[in-house]
Design brief:
Elements: E1 2-5, E2 10-13, E3 21-26, H1 37-55, E4 59-64, H2 71-80, H3 84-101, H4 117-129, E5 133-136, E6 139-142, H5 158-164, E7 181-186, E8 200-202, H6 204-215, E9 221-227, H7 231-245, E10 251-257, E11 260-262, E12 265-266, H8 277-284, H9 286-293, E13 302-304, H10 306-332, H11 343-353, H12 359-378, H13 384-400, H14 412-426, H15 430-442
Parallel strand pairs: 3-4, 3-9, 9-10, 11-13
Antiparallel strand pairs: 1-2, 5-6, 6-7, 7-8, 11-12
Helix pairs in contact: 2-3, 4-6, 6-7, 8-9, 9-10, 10-12, 11-12, 11-13, 12-13, 14-15
Length: about 450
């Protein structure tokens, strides 16, 4: 496996810390609203990365968190007149439903900020004691000047970050440096916890570092993932804190997926073009949604449009048609499709996926194999051993992509209708053939 490492800006050969084991953490959502389709991209990308590692023979521990305390959650709770926990639980459930409806494998852990509070307070105390953080009137700030490597992930100098990051740099006068970020916020608004510095709650940038430490026993992990929008300041600030306490940059490989555009521009509530993930999945189904989200390299911008949507539907339908046709013909011929996969086709597909998840090339290999399957079915004397092998290869390729196409199981009546459809076609009785075709379509056979 080769992965593009945002830390080194290079494609690197993956070398696990522990042989045969991959430890991966991906930043999860702040749960104050429903996930939009852009939020579904990292769900699919990193689930697929996990599946590729498993296809390569690795055991994967995959953890992703929920940020269940935040200003947005508190404001929504106040607006609705309910507790913050009610808002958080509502959207955790909704997010889990989206994740499950996208055919994802079960995560190994989903830590929550509110359930990791003691560890966060202890971590902040360590930073204060080490001189990497300072207290101002009940609030705690991380001093970026205390870590000489600050900016190593975003590959910028601190002065450039200040000059170019006006939207993300807080000009709080209590800070020693505008880039310093809050580890503990003093507040009487919403849910709070007791701490050595007074009542308050943790800053966002501390949460993931602490949860990673708890879930992976304080060790450095192999992969830290998330969207490119998290690279600065969130991930940069995670690295800084880890350097200060753990004396390493938290993960060996930093993997960031690209953003999703809508008709060539950003999704925006003000423009009214936000597409909720649950609605897209309900409309397209999990298979087409995943196929679309993986249709370009994960690091590139993905354009969500009518054209890309229709292309994904047609491509999945093309594969589905080939598989169903094979299943129907096999059952009519009373032959089994159990077989070993074609190693050459499979290896080409896996090589593409191991090349920094090169899904466009992997898709090409799937279509080459589908073409081979269709050709095998068009001959008068079908070589069922070969056809079954090609069929199983396509199934295995799709499984790595998290795409599951239901198998056709014919009843005696189905077989009768199918035979009559073929007879009508051979006799050029197209009106009768169309009638049988409609029945087969209604039954989901073709």
């Amino acid at each position: 496996m080769k992965l593009y490492n945002s830390l080194t800006l290079k494609n690197e050969e993956f070398k696990p810390i522990h042989e045969g084991q991959v430890n991966m953490y991906v930043c999860g959502p702040t749960v104050y609203n429903h996930a939009h389709i852009g939020n579904a991209r990292p769900i699919v990308v990193f689930d697929t990365l996990r599946r590729v590692f498993e296809a390569d023979g690795y055991k994967v521990k995959y953890v992703s968190n929920f940020t269940d305390v935040d200003d947005k959650i508190i404001n929504k709770a106040i607006e609705e007149g309910v507790k913050e926990t009610e808002i958080a639980e509502r959207y955790i459930d909704a997010y889990n439903q989206v994740r499950e409806s996208l055919n994802t494998e079960k995560l190994d852990a989903t830590p929550q900020v509110t359930k990791t509070m003691n560890e966060m307070i202890e971590f902040i105390e360590k930073l204060v004691e080490a001189g990497n953080a300072y207290v101002v009137d009940g609030e705690v700030y991380f001093s970026v000047d205390s870590v000489g490597t600050y900016g190593e992930l975003s590959h910028q100098h601190t002065e450039d970050l200040i000059a170019g990051g006006s939207e993300r740099v807080d000009e709080n006068s209590a800070k020693k440096n505008p880039l310093d970020f809050a580890l503990w916020k003093k507040t009487d608004k919403g849910i709070t916890w007791d701490s050595p510095w007074g009542k308050g709650r943790p800053g966002w940038h501390t949460e993931c570092v602490v949860m990673i430490g708890k879930e992976f026993n304080g060790e450095m992990i192999d992969i830290h993932g998330g969207g490119k929008d998290l690279k600065f300041p969130h991930h940069e600030n995670e690295v800084a804190q880890s350097e200060a306490v753990n004396h390493h940059h938290l993960a060996n490989y930093w993997v960031h997926n690209g953003m999703l555009n809508f008709d060539g521009g950003k999704m925006s509530k003000s423009l009214g073009n936000v597409k909720l993930a649950k609605d897209v999945i309900a409309e397209l189904g999990a298979n087409v949604t995943r196929w679309l989200l993986l249709s370009v390299n994960y690091r590139d911008i993905l354009n969500f449009s009518e054209e890309t949507l229709e292309a994904a539907q047609k491509e999945v339908s093309r594969i589905e048609t080939a598989l169903k046709q094979t299943e129907v013909k096999a059952q009519l011929a009373d032959v089994s499709l159990e077989a070993e996969i074609k190693s050459e086709n499979w290896q080409k597909f896996l090589d593409a996926m191991n090349d920094d998840l090169n899904t466009p090339n992997a898709y090409k290999e799937i279509f080459e194999t589908v073409k081979e399957l269709n050709q095998g079915l068009r001959v008068r004397e079908i070589d069922w051993k070969n056809v079954a092998s090609v069929y199983q290869t396509i199934r295995k390729m799709l499984e790595v992509l998290g795409i599951y196409i239901n198998q056709v199981v014919l009843s005696a009546e189905d077989k009768d209708i199918y035979q009559k459809w073929n007879e009508a076609k051979s006799q050029k009785d197209f009106e009768t053939a169309d009638k049988y075709r409609a029945q087969l379509q209604e039954r989901g056979i073709i």
